[in-house]
Amino acid sequence: MAYSEKVIDHYENPRNVGAMDKDDSGVGTGMVGAPACGDVMRLQIKVNEQGIIEDAKFKTYGCGSAIASSSLVTEWVKGKTLDEAMTIKNSHIAEELELPPVKIHCSVLAEDAIKAAVEDYRSKQGAGHSHAEVAAAQVAH
Amino acid sequence: MAEVCIQCGAELNAPPALCHSCGAIQPFRAELSLFGVVGLPESYDLNLQELRSQVLQLQKILHPDRFARADATTRRFSLEWSTRLNEALAVLRDPLKRADYLLQRQEIDALGEQVKVADPSLLMTQMMYRERLEDVLAARDQNGLDQLRGEVEDASSKAVNKLHILLKKLPCEQVDEAGSVLRELQFLDKLLGEIDRGEESLQNL
């Protein structure tokens, strides 16, 4: 099976590899894994006071398609609102990367990871003061 | 109703591929489980030596090479039994595949391609192992690699022990729990494969 040029490009030059502080209230972390291939994916977003995703990082251990899918998603979500990020579908990822049918599950993993990251961020905000409130309070002091 | 030999009519005992009275090869029975083909009771707790010797003994008699001059039907039976016996040995001797097979017998697909894991502590541990592997390989740290392998092997045996408990009574009643332990074992198994590949790359450079 041959990888598409886009997959190879993301695989060889992955965008936004790295980690953010998962305890930061402005950071949402999504982790998912696929036991069938042993893939583990972590996707993190940094959300600003306006609710815009201003940065995204990922770390994926898995095949080229899984790495490319998560790399692409970090590029796509930057500058998006949380609601916009939630509309990303695995079919968009698979189409953009020209994934063959046997690799579609890698794009599903990336979709799950971004959703999990948004949910993690929202649950953190719901649990305490919203990020915007905390930021406003800090500015006030 | 007991199955009888197609040649002499004697009642067939397990394993049912061969008649115990006249030795005739019997029609292949696709409905038999992998345990049934080998003639062992369905259980997670399997004596691997017994499994291996049983399969080898049957293969000696059933192997298609021995039936090269037999009629087409007999040749087909031999090929079918022999193929299924190979499959039985490959699946049943592996603690991961054996557990997966037993759950599949209960129509539970714990390791399918569509199955995803979201358990944060499991994923966190796997991520941490992978990061350590990356670090020790970058540092060409053989001791670090050996230590990591030891920890992953320990974690694997712990998972297998848990499966022994969960699958002691069949059909398994705690299928969710067994499925999640199985998925953990699958991750560890893949990781050990990566550790092997890493070890090779350290030695080849």
Short description:
The complex is a heterodimer of chains A (141) and B (205). With 141 residues, chain A is α+β, with helices and mostly antiparallel strands.
Task: Describe, in plain words, how this protein is organized in 3D.
The complex is a heterodimer of chains A (141) and B (205). Chain A is α+β, with helices and mostly antiparallel strands and 141 residues long. Helix content of chain A is 49%, strand content 18%. Chain A is built from 6 helices and 3 strands. In chain A, strands 1-2-3 form a 3-stranded antiparallel beta sheet. In chain A, a hairpin with a 5-residue loop joins β2 and β3. Chain A starts with a helix and ends with a helix. In chain A, 46% of the residues are buried. Chain B is mostly helical and 205 residues long. In chain B, 61% of the residues lie in helices and 0% in strands. The longest helix of chain B is centred in the C-terminal third of the chain and has 30 residues. The model of chain B has no long low-confidence stretch (mean pLDDT 94). The chains are: A alpha+beta (141), B mainly alpha (205). The interface between A and B is medium-sized, with 17 and 25 residues.
